[in-house]
Write a structure and sequence with these properties.
The protein is an alpha/beta fold and 230 residues long. The protein has one domain: 3-Layer(aba) Sandwich (Rossmann fold). Strands 3, 4, 5, 6, 7 and 8 form a 6-stranded mixed β-sheet that branches. Strands 10-9-12-11 form a 4-stranded antiparallel β-sheet, with no helix packed on it. Strand 1 and strand 2 form a beta hairpin. It is globular and about 45 Å long. It starts with a strand and ends with a strand. The N terminus is likely disordered.
Length: 230
Amino acid sequence: MEDTMRGGEMSHIPKAMLCWSSGKDSAWSLHVLRQRQEVEVVGLLTTINEVHDRVAMHAVRVALLQAQAEAVGLPLWTVPIPSPCSNQQYEMAMGTAIRRALAAGVSVMAFGDLFLEEVRRYRETQLAGTGLAPLFPIWGLSTTLLAREMVSAGLRARVTCVDPKQIPASFAGREFDDALLADLPASADPCGERGEFHTFAYAGPMFHHPVSIQTGEIVTRDGFVFADLH
């Protein structure tokens, strides 16, 4: 673990787990945290739908998630949750992960949230008194500017899930790029923060090497449109 000198004394950088959805916002959060060097990210924490063996909501196969973690050079901690999953079940599963993190010397939990106040408050409430401090490295950034910055910096991501009530189903399986940003309806957040779409990041400055992917079948399930990645 890296050390820094403060006032002539040796000070350890806090260890952090990053809540990792497999998408672009998580990937960019990792990039920002590594640049700032205020914490040392020691692992990725991902909830897994244990019925489908995929990342919750993003519907990414666990094998791809594992390849992604290897490509960014961090261990993956998976948190299995049932489907459907109640708040109580989710909180119990996360409680187990929090205890594991504390036992590993982790003192910070980082999240890739951007502007949804109720989501931030929920996370802060759940971590209150646990010994883990919440950290939101990309909070409050302009999502219009951030989306452009991600693309121009070489972040590559594929849309894996679309809410067709907010944007056209045809966005499923598309690249997150300048063309997609130009085609998004004006009502949609450029980063999909309101659940318009979810992505799988597979290349960029936070990766040691790209993750090879192919877009497979596109299916509609539970009111969402999913692009299956291989």
